[in-house]
Known about the structure:
By secondary structure, the protein is of the alpha/beta class. Helix content is 23%, strand content 26%.
Amino acid sequence: MPLNRRKFLGTSAVTGVGAALAGAAGAPSAAAAPAIGPSGHDSGRGHGKRYSFTVLGTTDLHGNVFNWDYFTDKEFDDKAHNDVGLAKISTLVNQVREEKGRRNTLLIDAGDTIQGTQLSYYYAKIDPITAERGPVHPMAQAMNAIGYDAAALGNHEFNYGIPVLRKFEEQCDFPLLGANALDAKTQRPAFPPYSMHRLRTPHGRAVRVAVLGLTNPGIALWDKANVQGKMVFPGLEEQAAKWVPKLRSMGADVVIVSAHSGSSGTSSYGDQLPYIENAAALVAEQVPGIDAILVGHAHTEIPEYFVTNKETGKRVVLSEPLKWGQRLTLFDFDLVWAKGRWTVEKVAAKVLNSNVVAEDPRITGLLGDEHEKVVAYVNQVIGTSKAAMSTAEGPVKDVPIIDLISHVQAETVKAALAGGEWAKLPVLSQASCFSRTAGIPAGEVTIRDAAGLYPFENTLEARLITGAQLKEYLEYSARYYVRTPAGGPVDPAKLTNAEGIPDYNYDAVYGVSYEIDIAKPVGSRIAGLSFDGKPVAADAQFVLAVNNYRASGGGNFPHVPGAKQLWADSDEIRNTIITWVQEKGTIDPAAFASVEWKLTRDGTPVFTD
Length: 609
């Protein structure tokens, strides 16, 4: 893919890309900006000229514009009564701009923007933005209207393929940044690495603020089908070390990193990739010259977190606002003019909660028609169910609704392999409980019911594995359970997510029977593994129906990423489930549901029902 030299790219004697973005992506013009508020005035404390400004940040918006849950068809709510969406964020942004002065603020994002809700799915797949005379993506419309200055690329930006991402980029009035998203052939940036913004001060000399965008190297695995041979994604630390000195040499007074990478320093990819998934804190620690990092990807809330740079001893502030527009980060910068330049004297961070404000009617009115189209789409009836099914107990029990996912996957793979070399091998299937609140009602089943089981854009593959590999795969999955001694009481709420393992990284395998003894240490928990009533032999061969995230190394499960691929689909598993329901007409749990795995302690079942 050629280097993207689109509307936000300028020229640079140092880099040749993206250096003159100040005019296109900087602060608004004097005519459009209100007068400088108190934050822009000299403090009068006798320590030179001073200037303060604020950088606002969001991350992991995942297609949320409205405070609406398309899977439940009602206003979003959770146990903490959080709200979601850009319409709420817009109200907060307006309030901060009113307080600080519009020209004293910047608004940036740390990625994962165009995937996650049925609103974003609809305009990628049902009424795609890539069609001739296609629509403008709702996220582009909303973010343009709010006035974003820059956004980093997230890994989910690549889920729908590069053409959709490029069209979204074209529709945005701000640059999508990715210093470590490189053209596979030229090794040059495929997107603008950074943007440069001039904030005018009451003291004459403007403050130059550089925003460096970094994305997640795991894209090379998770979206291999979309990016292989087109783009490569080296590590965040090495690319930050390359670009931060350049930005300083170009006159940046302040350097902010917008990183779609968590702060924990965890999750490398073994032999597949030598990079760290959650590297934001490592960037702060290892790369001098950074003032603040807007953190994304991990879906956690970090109002303010300081990391000391090893080389300079300087403290770098990190902040991660909660996903989906539930929080807005504020970085408050205090600068002082000394020795002919602006120097950062202090940076503080905090988050604002979007549930304390109303939705901005300007944003909801702008996208009301799009919202109504999607609501009508997801409420289409596609079949009926003979019984209600819920995922509520899916993390601790073999429940019919998870079996439904696996059954559809297994049937799809069997049909794809029919008549071929691998047709006689037994087909197993993996599935995870993606949401503990999903369900299929008794009676009419809609698109939103079926889609709610699979909120990700994963596709289906078939991989060849042995009995020994299957056992190790299950042992790895069983790390998810907290070790619980036999004999004592059991609290189901405390059995799962050991070591912070998310629900989507626990797999149940359909088609074999086994027990998970949670009284045993990790690595020794799987017992009674059998197929068709007989113990599974180490050299037995199986076909595993598996999603592309897992097959590409997501979750770092053993064996499957290196296993022989027998078949792969290009359609999302979610659509496969919807199509299966439409074709069958009726969902009958008796036709596919059975208890094939259970939790035990020293051989005694944890649950008896």
